[in-house]
Design goal:
Cathepsin B, Chain A; alpha+beta; 378 residues; 43% helix; single chain; 12 helices
Length: 378
């Protein structure tokens, strides 16, 4: 079979920089992640709009992916080029070399999303011209309108309790009723483009760039193997009419740019909830530490000192008593010294039990603490 030649394919996804401000905004911090066992293992799809678009020779894949994700929630077609320009304005780049996922997602939150039906740019002949990378090139009234369609905030769904594949899968299924598909990106390999039927091979191919994609039809099983279904922005001439199927191995290996879901929750509420959870976690850890210390209710250094002092003092006392009755002959009698040592040790242990392991009325602190521990767990 002769492969169709697509010519130069542009990508446009750059590395996502680390940011401490992301801490409250990840799957485990915002929502209680469902168990992977709750996710159906058959095919399922909740995407509202699966509109395959073509970014052509631009570096606007982040805008195309972000717009496609937002379309599911807004249930209206959005302009991907405006989305790209919004992201470029956040990161302060020209757009000639692409953008990162965080900046593009922030663009959707701070600048907004522009519906195609209100967009004059979408009907223009020069819409792929580089000038449209600059948000200042867009009509002011359209920028104001886009602000009304802005997203609230976003969370990083690849940071959960499973591998990247299952974290994305659980996030998709958990938020399916809100049509929250996932914005993500992958290292794009040459053998991906020509994959038969859009089924991505696991073999390593030459890396040709970083590419932003959108999770659309969430889950599919092919020949007994699980795949995440991805909507691409190279028109319908590639993959399965514009769709690609990524297996677990490739997702966990090549999805290095993060994975995002837009959620309809004010960021201030997320930060407050995160701070509350942190306080609760610290309090829980403190209580658990207190319970563990109550089991023994002693300090190891104090115990060591007590053993040493008790044994030595008891030994000296016993030797003193013995010398008074038998004279110096005891020093040459090793069996007698051993008996004296046992006597002093027993006396020392009795002292420890009395002063460290029992309370004032003779109750055993260890058994009582263990008993209370189990009662608390119930």
């Amino acid at each position: 079979m002769t492969k169709k030649k697509f010519g130069k394919m542009n990508f446009g996804l750059t590395d996502t920089p680390e940011d401490e401000r992301d801490k409250p905004f990840h799957l485990g911090a915002v929502i209680q992640q469902i168990d992977i066992k709750e996710v159906p293992k058959n095919d399922w799809d909740f995407s509202v709009l699966t509109i395959i678009k073509n970014q052509k020779q631009t570096q606007r894949c982040t805008g195309y992916a972000t717009g496609a994700v937002s379309e599911d929630q807004e249930e209206i077609e959005l302009c991907p080029d405006f989305q790209a320009a919004a992201g470029f304005s956040i990161s302060g780049v020209s757009g000639e070399d692409g953008n990162d996922l965080r900046s593009t997602a922030k663009g959707a939150c701070k600048v907004g999303c522009l519906p195609v039906k209100f967009c004059s740019h979408c009907k223009s002949d020069d819409k792929y011209a580089s000038k449209w990378n600059n948000l200042k090139s867009w009509p002011e009234e359209e920028i104001k309108l886009a602000y009304k369609y802005r997203k609230q905030t976003f969370i990083w769904v690849e940071k959960g309790r499973y591998d990247i594949f299952d974290n994305i899968k659980t996030a998709l299924w958990q938020n399916r009723e809100k049509h929250q598909s996932v914005l993500t990106g992958t290292v794009w390999r040459e053998n991906f483009t020509y994959s038969e039927g859009g089924v991505i091979p696991t073999e390593l191919g030459d890396i040709v760039g970083g590419h932003a994609i959108k999770k659309c039809i969430a889950h599919k099983v092919i020949d007994g193997k699980e795949y995440l279904v991805v909507q691409n922005s190279y028109d319908k001439d590639v993959g399965d009419k514009g769709l690609f199927y990524f297996p677990r191995e490739v997702v966990n290996r090549d999805f290095k740019y993060g994975a995002i879901q837009f959620i309809d929750v004010p960021p201030e509420d997320i930060k407050k909830e995160y701070e509350i959870k942190q306080i609760i976690n610290q309090k829980t850890m403190a209580e658990e530490t207190s319970i563990r210390s109550d089991i023994f209710h002693i300090n190891l250094r104090d115990v060591g000192n007590a053993v040493l002092v008790t044994v030595l003092s008891t030994l000296l006392l016993a030797l003193g008593n013995e010398l008074q009755t038998t004279g110096l002959t005891v020093l040459t009698d090793t069996s007698r010294l051993f008996e004296l040592f046992q006597l002093s040790l027993n006396a020392g242990l009795a002292y420890l039990v009395k002063n460290f392991f029992e309370d004032k009325v003779g109750n055993n602190k260890i058994s009582g603490a263990v008993k209370n521990l189990f009662l608390e767990k119930k």
